[in-house]
Amino acid sequence: MTHAAHIAHLTHASIELMDERDPLADLREQFIIPGGVIYLDGNSLGALPKSVPARMKQAIEQEWGIGLIRSWNDADWYLAPQRVGALIAGLIGAQPTEVIVCDSTSVNVFKVLVAACRMRPDRSVIVSERGNFPTNAYITAEVARLMGKTVVFVEPSEVDDAIESAGDDLVAVQLTEVNFKTASRYDMAAITERVHALGGCVVWDLCHSAGVLPVDLNGCDVDFAVGCTYKYLNGGPGSPAFLFAAERHLHQVDQPLPGWHGHARPFEFVQDYEPDPGIARMLTGTASQLGLLALEAALGVFAGLDMHVVRAKSVALTGLFISLVDTELAEFGFTVESPRDGTVRGSHVSLAHEHAYAITQALIARGVIGDFRAPNLLRFGFAPLYLRYGDVWNAVAIMRNVMTTAAWDAPEFLAKKAVT
Ligand SMILES: Cc1ncc(COP(=O)(O)O)c(C=O)c1O
User: How far is ligand 1, taken at its centre, from the CA of residue 290, in Å?
Assistant: First the structure.
């Protein structure tokens, strides 16, 4: 069937059929989705799994309230970073002993990038991309400054050339697998292989991958990876991040924030630092315990899930959205800024429009929650665990209404809020 013919067959009935046949349809029941909301921002803050409030009540009232400090042992708080890391490992192609949950993605980028520099002391070039998430750019530049390296920021299309040019001077490549604005996806396996052939290391950011794409860190032989847990992993606002370090490097990983929780014998309180032999050496200080426990409960929805099935639905949802934008919104001046090829697209779609901010606000006022990314993008995330194909259909119908009535052109939608 041609693309045009396929679109011609998109009717409300055919969309309903897609939902009936969706192997993930029942998962929506495990989330709290407010009535009247079509939530297209799970790429920024995942929805609340129903298991989390009860777990929080128990953690706060029983474990903290009654158990008090005893809960570090009695409620197994102390090993939560490793335990929750092991759950995430299963989603990103890592061994349970290679992933730990701690700090923020920003801090973890710093830790692993410095560690990578220390593994390649005689080399001087770090390659990263222009248009990477700002925190990655800021921290990569700062690591280069601290470690006496040079960082080269290039356009995504120039990454391969920059790697070749660095040659045997390449320290590390820091990239985000799925771009936060465009959703364009790098070929992790090919880039990692080329970097290794030149003797460098890779640091992959999986913020927009974990929980929505089948990531295969060990299959790709990745050195280090980081990612946040509040997007597709649904850990809640500001939930702690994860950090992956390949087993083969662990004995020599020399990270720059060696706190007492990363010590081999933290409760001996000794003067000199001796890193834990395993992944715990990536820890610094005391965990954000309530955040960890909320995340642990949230991850329950992934038990037994095949990430290839999740990926298939993600590609179908984003593809359906793009098709409907093409047909239903053609006359309103939107341009699709995300790849049309589903194989190189993450799970969100960005549309450019000169009135992107006001349109986003008008949509939110009607319950279609996406977000705005400066300077002119409307960004819509499609979380396959709780979105229905019918939601995509309805969202585009509401967009069409907002555009035909020019409802976005109102003073209350023009004033910028602190968080866009
Ligand atoms: C690709 C990417 N990297 C890093 C971050 C920053 O993470 P944090 O603020 O949790 O340190 C984000 C946040 O959205 C992101 O999208």
Answer: 20
Residues in contact with ligand 1 (CB, 6 Å cut-off) = 104-106, 133, 135-136, 176, 180, 205, 207-208, 228, 241
Q: pTM of the predicted model, to two decimals?
A: 0.96
pLDDT in tens, 61-109: 999 999 999 999 999 999 999 999 999 999 999 999 999 999 999 999 9
Q: Which atom of ligand 1 is nearest to the CA of 231?
A: 14
CA nearest to 240, candidates 178, 285, 176: 285
Q: Which of 347, 393, 338 is nearest to 10 (CA)?
A: 393
Q: Report CA(331)–ligand 1 centroid distance (Å).
A: 34
Contact 100, 83 (CB under 8 A): no
Instruction: Report angle CA 62, 67, 73 to the nearest 5 degrees.
Output: 120
Q: Which domains does the chain have, with CATH numbers?
A: 3-32+306-413 (3.90.1150.10), 53-302 (3.40.640.10)
Give the strand pairing for 170-176 and 125-129. Answer: parallel
Q: Is the pLDDT of residue 44 over 80?
A: yes
Give per-residue pLDDT as tens, 364-377.
Answer: 999 999 999 999 99
Band of pLDDT at residue 160, cut at 50, 70 and 90: very high
Instruction: Select from 41, 105, 181 the residue to mutate for testing ligand 1; criterion: most ligand atoms less than 8 Å from CB.
Output: 105
Q: Which of 101, 179, 207 to mutate to test the pocket of ligand 1 (most atoms within 8 A of CB)?
A: 207
* Residues labelled as active-site residues: 133, 205, 230-231, 379
CA atoms within 13 A on the CB side of 69: 0
DSSP 329: S
